[in-house]
Each structure stands twice: as C-alpha cells, then as structure tokens.
Amino acid sequence: MTDQRISIFIISDSAGETASKLAQASMAQYEDAQIKIQIVKRAFIYHENELIQALEEAKAVNAIVLHTLVSKDLVNIANNYGKEHNLFTVDILSGLVDELSNRTGLEPSRLPGAMHFLSKNYFERISAMEFAVKYDDGKNPKGFLEADILLLGVSRTSKTPLSLFLANKNLKVANLPLIPEAHIPQQLWEVDPKKIVGLTNNPKVLNRIRRERMKSYGLNPDTAYSDIDKIKRELEFANDLYKTLGCLVINVAQLSIEETASIILSELNIEDTSYFG
Predict the structure, then answer these.
(1) Mean pLDDT within 213-224
(2) How do residues 145-154 score in pLDDT, each as one tens digit?
(3) Integer Cα distance of 3 and 1 in angstroms
(4) Residue 85 vs residues 46, 60, 78, 156: alpha-carbon distances, Å
C-alpha cells in the first residue's frame, strides 16, 4: 500500500474539542495503516470572513471538514460551501441540536462554547481534580474517608492517570500504592469496600511496562523494580489484600484508562456526572 496523506480540518466557534475527539476516534481505526493524517484546527471562528478563509484553506488540500458551529448563518455557509465545492463536510452539532428543539419545543441558545461556561459543574470538576492531586500516591490517608473512590494498586497500574480521568467526571478520587513492605494506613479499613477499587495486572505486562519506564529515565531496565519474581510477589500481596477487603478488582492489562473508568462507574453504580447541565 502506498502512503496516503489526508488532512482533517476542524472548524469551531469554540476550542474544537468535540470535533477533535471525533477525529481521533476515527483515526484510531487506522493506526496500523500507512496513512498520514494531519489535523488542522481553526478555532474560535465567529465571523463569515474567518469561516470562508478556513474553508478555502481546507479546499486547497481537499481536506475533510468537521465543524461544530452553532450560529445558523455560519452552519449554512459551511454546509453550502461544502456542496458547491465538492468538499466533504460533516456538520456535527446541527442534527442533534435541531432534534432536541423539535422534541422540547424550545429554541437553543446558539451561544458559542456554551458547554465551557463557568457553571457549578465546572467548579465541581476543578475541585475534584485538586482533590486527586492532593491525595495522590497515598500522600494523606485522611483523604480516603472523603473520597468517592479509592484506588489501590502496585506501581504502574495506572492509579494516577485514572484518578485524574475520574476527577474530570467530578469524582473525588484518592489512590494508594501497594508495597508489601510498607505500612497499610489504618484509614483504609475504615473506608466502605464498595468505594474501593483494586487494580491488578499480568506479571509479564507489568514487567514490560516497568522496564520501559526505567529506559525512559535512561536507567538500567533490569533492576529489582522490574524483576518478574518481585512483581509476582507484589501482585500476590495486592490480590490477597483485595480479597480481605472484599472490593472490586480490575485487571488493567488489556484496558485503556477510559475502559477501566467505564467499568468502575458501571460496577460501583456511579452516574457519569461529566455531562453539561
């Protein structure tokens, strides 16, 4: 297969995050193919002349255009331009916004970037992220009792990134690294097991991750940290603790952060509060 180059233009009256996520999700289906995809973002487009300029740039490279515009005038300009110039254009918002209007009998606000206004939801999310940072890596076990979720796991089981991902869903998350030789904080036994999630992994996968971690620091990858027998002992210690606690256990070996978070929300019956409203 010959190399292919494709440009995706993201045009938005806000930051363009919605269209970017759609583009990335689509691109993920072609990771192993010899396709070079360039994403070009034209954000905070409020005026017709700015929109036309962005569309002309896209036309010059026969790009795919994804737009999230809320102004009816700008939406019509973008869609008509695509038809007139044979430019593939995807109008991401209009269909759903119009259908919501049809079903509710209400008119949309048509405010650019409305999802990112400083609402109560926004401030709760910031507070949750600050909580995750404050109580990361067992810094202060007192936070365990305030947390919505407490993550446990040996080193390199994605505790910190998962904490921050869940914090972005307005959840207060603390985490504790498990080391066989280390003291288990008393507060752990005071937490409702239904709020605790034990993260585990496969020894070989964890060995590879830790070796790569050491290499990234320019260090010898063959240390006690990456020793397969030591890893097995750590995992055994963690799994024994999980059984004692009676908590949810998730093997993250083949899971992305998003997939693990989805399992946690589902199994703990927690509503995803990251929606707008």
Answers:
(1) 93
(2) 999 999 999 9
(3) 7
(4) 22, 11, 11, 50
Three-state secondary structure of 225-256: HHCHHHHHHHHHHHHHHHHHHCCEEEECCCCC
Q: How many residues does the chain have?
A: 277
Alpha helices in 7-114 (DSSP H): 17-27, 48-60, 72-84, 94-104
Query: How does pLDDT run across 102-114, given as a tens digit for each residue?
Result: 999 999 988 886 6
The residue among 51, 58, 56 whose CA lies nearest residue 77 is 51
Structure-block tokens of residue 61: 């490279």
Tokens of 146: 């305030």
Q: What band does 276 get if pLDDT is binned at 50, 70 and 90?
A: very low
198 CB-near residues (< 8 Å, 6+ apart)? 152, 153, 238, 239, 241, 242, 245, 247, 248, 249, 250
- Residue 12 near residue 43 (C-beta atoms within 8 A): yes
- Average pLDDT of the segment spanning 207-235: 95
